[in-house]
Amino acid sequence: MSEIADAPVSAGANQSVDRLKTPCALVDPRVVERNTRRMSETAHRLGVRLRPHVKTHKCLEAGRLQVRGHFGGITVSTLAEARFFAEGGFDNITWAFPLPPDQLDEVFELSAKLKAFHVLVDQAETVEALAREASRRGRTIATLLKVDCGYHRAGVDPADPASVRLAARIAGAEGLRFEGVLTHGGHSYAAKTLDEIRAVSRQERDEVVGFAQKLRAAGLEVPTVSLGSTPTLCVPAEHLDGVTEVRPGNYAFFDLFQVEIGSCALEDVAFSVLATVVAHYPAQRKLMINAGALALSKDLGADHLGGERGYGRIVSMDGAEAFPDFRLQSLSQEHGQVTVPSAESLSAFPVGSKIRIIPNHSCMTAALFETYHLVEDGRVTGEWRPTRLW
Amino acid sequence: MSEIADAPVSAGANQSVDRLKTPCALVDPRVVERNTRRMSETAHRLGVRLRPHVKTHKCLEAGRLQVRGHFGGITVSTLAEARFFAEGGFDNITWAFPLPPDQLDEVFELSAKLKAFHVLVDQAETVEALAREASRRGRTIATLLKVDCGYHRAGVDPADPASVRLAARIAGAEGLRFEGVLTHGGHSYAAKTLDEIRAVSRQERDEVVGFAQKLRAAGLEVPTVSLGSTPTLCVPAEHLDGVTEVRPGNYAFFDLFQVEIGSCALEDVAFSVLATVVAHYPAQRKLMINAGALALSKDLGADHLGGERGYGRIVSMDGAEAFPDFRLQSLSQEHGQVTVPSAESLSAFPVGSKIRIIPNHSCMTAALFETYHLVEDGRVTGEWRPTRLW
Question: ipTM for the complex?
Answer without folding.
Answer: 0.95
